[in-house]
Design a protein that fits this description.
Residues 453-876 form the TonB-dependent receptor-like beta-barrel domain. The chain is mostly beta strands. The protein is built from eight helices and 52 strands. The chain has a 22-stranded antiparallel beta barrel. A five-stranded mixed sheet has the order 10-15-16-13-14. A four-stranded antiparallel sheet has the order 3-2-5-6, with no helix packed on it. The two termini are 59 Å apart.
Length: 925
């Protein structure tokens, strides 16, 4: 009986299988033809639900033959239904074309940022863009491991990043061109930099969750500002969609670094933001009571968990005429690094440095990052729109650096046993902020043939470092036991104030008239820009030393806290009378003429831009400088031509030529002197702008939803490139200083490959960039004078790569997306090849950064009701930053710390630890 039942069940199963089959399909956007990822697909009778994969496909297995009905729905699209007959085999591959459900107002479409911030939208913008560009969508940013714009940048082809002292990305290097050669935009408008020296914007100021998308321009057209030899970075902020939206998240985590050691901090709450000079007048004599004790009041503890959150609200009112979006982000994180630094000096005529001392440094940093964004737009009708947006970002960084330097009778020789020590602790509060307000208008006339766009802009940037305090003590190491002793010199304590502000007023105007010749179109464009930039810079410092009674007191014996010391101010009126206290200005007037021709097979854009620059400075306290004030005036004509040839609906060739410039920063042309870290820096009033011819060619294929294959090559010829080098001081013998200069002509060329491919739920993003550059700069070589037998310095020319340029850069990200179950997982690896970190004065002595791989990961699980849980992990491999010198001095091989390997000498290593976050996200609509 049991066997009969088994046979009967088997026959029924076979009959059912014989009448069951498989259904496959694809869901597309009707307007663009691109696949839609994550659409909900419902099969009726019996009801079964699935979602389209990363390539827009779906599949139902085991479907009974006969009549069937499928409906497809997706946010911002109209639901569609199709009825068909299921055959036993060879069922037709179903195709669904969805239409947008965007709300309209008098034929003016209110586009949803849900669509524009997707990967599909990003690929569409890349395909249609006039200039060559790469785009990271808002959704890709959201699910990535990255919290700041700087870290997002490292995922883009041809881009590497420079990291700050806690391991976070800070500056972007585009195609091997140092950060000085690119500019930063917010919604297409250039913003000033809070940096105290340079024009480039520190990208770690910007929380990534304020962005709708991130665009990187690799070529320029005449309607774009011309000072971007490397390229431009455009942050497009969140927009107001056609319906009410809420997006909120909160997360917390920890840095692995502070599980292994304590977090060091100081009391910054009572810091004086103005120096005694500013508070009491120029004749005031400061004493110890005028300075905060909190900057010398150190605490060592376990930090609180990191806290990160953001909230954005958006809605349209007045029958969709008025759109409002408000977004805010707050990040309070504790980061740091452990650094070992080997100081070197050139020994005799040997080309390679000998290690003279070892410094161990511990950085502890609390970063409070705030970002606010608000936009109001009003649509009068299909021809006239106005918008007002405001962006404010602020980064407060409280940093304590604790360092000890070890020497053995002037050299580093750990086998000697006893050592001389110098302890140096620095407490520093840095606050940087940027504010931008833009009123923008779009107008159309004569049946939309004539377009007028204008913008009125106010921007400001500020960098404030109040009461930067450092203290030095000497010490000894006996029998490998170290202790701190008395204050090391006559002025071991310094209090320094640094502050600079930029204020920009700018106006933009763009005019476009369209001619139509059958199916061909010709846009003729003209416009201009005027910007008035005003900068002020303030620098002051006070030096303090112990009284006669306290000069020989021993730390830990005679006193336990630095705040117990009695100190005397050696320069009671301060040092404000220096060349770093100055005012500066820059006035830029620009105009352009441009055309854009569009046919079925060709798009051609060309024209020229003219920029007139008046840049000047005025030292407020000149002290014998040759140029106490100065001005540079120049005019540049910047032609460009861009061509796109359409090979098919999904592939095209993209070629471009453009001329660009790079202006010196104010700090670079002001003849100032300041000691930063281990060396003195000086400005160069004779520094000239750099000019470059840029050529690009790229094959672009967009085969499907969010997919692409980009293969390109580029070449840049830079006249008078600006590089920093060490120079010998002709008036002070062996003294050297770090200064910018122009060095002939540099060449930079390379190739890029950018590939994105999806296989249902699995995706791969990969890119690789090869860059080769050459520049020739003067170096110092030490030789023996045959006549006297003395060692003398001679100048020689040495060819090298551009500062900051890596020959090889690569990124690989593996993605898993299951829309039905609500999973998004990403594992990302970024490789940056060796590059010059510091240009040395001496021949063959440049400081190189070792190539490294950084691994990050993230995962998100979505639940019903718009709630999701996510985790992010950064620097999983605890990848250090290592610096080395090519070549080695035989003396360094004797050090038992394995510093010499493969013909290279390790001189620095920084470890940052892993960082982890877990959080919740809520989305409505």
């Amino acid at each position: 009986m049991n066997k009969l039942l088994q046979i009967l069940f088997f026959l029924i199963f076979c009959a059912g299988t014989a009448n069951a089959t498989k259904i496959k399909g694809h869901v597309y956007d009707k307007q663009t033809g691109e696949a839609i990822v994550g659409a909900t697909v419902i099969l009726e009778n019996p009801k079964r639900v699935t979602n389209t994969g990363l390539d827009g496909t779906f599949e139902f297995k085991g479907v009974s033959t006969g009549s069937a009905k499928i409906s497809v729905s997706y946010i911002t699209y109209k639901t569609i239904t199709k009825t068909f007959t299921v055959e036993k085999e060879d069922n037709e591959h179903l195709k669904f074309y969805m239409e947008s459900d965007s709300k309209s107002l008098d034929d003016v479409t209110i586009k949803s940022n849900v669509v524009s911030s997707t990967d599909q939208g990003a690929r569409r913008l890349e395909k249609n863009a006039t200039q060559i560009m790469n785009i990271v969508s808002g959704r890709a940013i959201e699910i990535s491991p990255d919290l700041t714009v700087a870290n997002v940048m490292q995922r883009i082809s041809g881009v590497s990043i420079e990291r700050n002292s806690n391991g976070d990305g800070q500056y972007a290097i585009l195609r091997g061109m140092d950060k000085r050669y690119n500019y930063t935009l917010v919604n297409g408008v250039k913003i000033p930099s809070p940096d105290n020296k340079y024009r480039y914007v520190p990208l770690d100021l910007f929380p990534s969750d304020l962005l709708d998308r991130l665009e990187v321009y690799k070529t320029l057209t005449p309607n774009l500002e011309g000072d971007a030899i490397g390229g431009g970075i455009n942050m497009v902020m969140k927009n107001a969609p056609g319906k009410f939206q809420v997006n909120a998240n909160i997360s917390s985590g920890y840095s692995r670094l502070f599980i292994d050691r304590k977090f060091a901090s100081f009391n910054s709450s009572d810091i004086q933001y103005k120096s005694p000079y500013e508070l009491n007048g120029k004749s005031y004599n400061a004493n110890q009571n005028n300075f905060t004790k909190g900057t010398l009041d150190y605490k060592y503890k376990n930090p609180a968990p990191n806290l990160i959150g953001s909230l954005s609200l958006s809605q349209r009112f007045l029958d969709n005429k008025l759109g409002v979006v408000l977004a805010g982000s707050y990040q309070n994180t504790y980061r740091g690094s452990n650094s070992t630094f080997y100081n070197t000096a050139v020994n005799g005529t040997d080309a390679y440095s000998v290690i003279t001392s070892k410094s161990y440094r511990e950085f502890s940093e609390q970063q409070q990052r705030t970002g606010l964004h608000g936009k109001i737009d009003y649509v009068f009708n299909k021809n006239h729109q106005l918008s007002l947006y405001n962006v404010y970002v602020n980064l407060k960084n409280e940093q304590l650096r604790d360092a000890v330097t070890t020497t053995y009778n002037g050299v580093y020789n750990p086998t000697a046993g006893n050592a001389e020590l110098v302890y140096n602790t620095r407490s520093r509060l840095t606050e940087q902020q940027i504010y931008n307000s833009t009123l923008h208008g779009d107008h159309k006339f004569f049946d939309e043939k004539f377009k007028v766009q204008w913008s009125a802009v106010y921007s400001s940037a500020k960098n404030d470092v109040p009461e930067n305090t450092s203290i030095s003590l000497n010490g000894i190491q006996q029998n490998f036991q170290s202790r701190r002793l008395s204050l090391v010199n006559t002025n071991p304590v310094t209090h320094r104030w640094e502050r600079n502000t930029d204020e920009d007023l700018a106006g933009y105007l763009d005019l476009t008239y369209r001619f139509t010749f059958g199916e061909n179109k010709l846009d003729v464009m003209a416009g201009g820009l005027y910007r008035d930039k005003q900068r002020s810079s303030f620098f002051n410092n006070y030096n303090l030393g112990p009284s006669a009674a306290d000069a020989n007191k021993i730390y830990g014996v005679d006193y336990k806290n630095y705040t117990d010391l009695n100190l005397i101010v050696s320069n009671p009126t301060g040092a404000v009378a220096n060349s770093l206290t100055y005012d500066a200005s820059e006035k830029i007037t620009a105009g352009y003429g441009m055309f854009k021709y569009i046919s079925a097979k060709l798009e051609l854009t060309g024209g020229a831009r003219i920029e007139h620059t008046i840049q000047g400075y005025n030292l407020l306290f000149p002290a014998g400088e040759t140029f106490p004030n100065g001005q540079q005036v120049y005019t540049d004509v910047l032609p460009s031509l861009t061509a796109k040839y359409f090979l098919s609906e999904k592939s095209q060739l993209h070629a471009s030529y453009y001329k660009a410039l790079n202006r010196p920063g104010f700090y670079e042309i002001v003849p100032g002197k300041v000691v930063n870290e281990e060396f003195q820096e000086r400005g160069n009033p004779n520094l000239k702008r750099a000019l470059a011819d840029n050529f690009d060619l790229r094959y672009e294929l967009f085969p499907g939803a969010s997919e692409q294959l980009l293969v390109g090559a580029f070449y840049k010829r830079i006249k008078d490139p600006i590089e920093y080098t060490f120079q010998a001081d002709a008036t002070r013998g062996q003294d050297i200083y770090y200064t910018p200069g122009n060095f002939g002509t540099a060449n930079n060329y390379g190739a890029e490959v950018d590939y994105i491919k999806y296989f249902s739920k699995i995706g791969v993003k990969a890119n690789y960039t090869y860059t080769h550059s050459r520049i020739t700069t003067p170096k110092t070589s030490r030789v023996i004078n045959p006549a006297t037998g003395d060692i003398q310095a001679v100048s020689v020319e040495q060819e090298r790569t551009l500062y900051g340029q890596s020959e090889h850069i690569a990124n690989v990200s593996l993605l898993f997306k299951d829309t039905k179950k609500g999973w998004d997982v990403q594992v990302a690896g970024a490789y940056t090849g060796p590059r010059i970190n510091t240009v040395s004065q001496f021949l063959n002595n440049d400081l190189w950064q070792e190539g490294f791989i950084q691994m990050d990961a993230s995962a998100e699980k979505r639940f019903k009701g718009g709630i999701s849980v996510f985790v992010k992990a950064n620097n999983i491999l605890n990848t250090p930053t290592k610096l080395f010198i090519k070549g080695t001095n035989p003396e360094n091989s004797k050090i038992n710390e394995q510093l010499v390997k493969d013909g290279q000498t390790l001189v620095r290593s920084d470890y940052y630890g892993q960082n982890y976050l877990i959080g919740f996200r809520y989305k409505f609509n």
